[in-house]
Amino acid sequence: MKHLAAIHVLKGKLQLSDDDYRALLANLTGQTSSKALSDAERGRVRDHMQKLAEKLGVAAPRPAGWQKTYREATPMERKVWALWNALGREGRIKNPSPQALRAWVKRQTGMDDLKFCSWPQLSGLIEALKRWEERE
Question: What is the pLDDT of residues 71-96, one digit of tens each?
Answer without folding.
Answer: 778 899 999 999 998 998 888 888 88
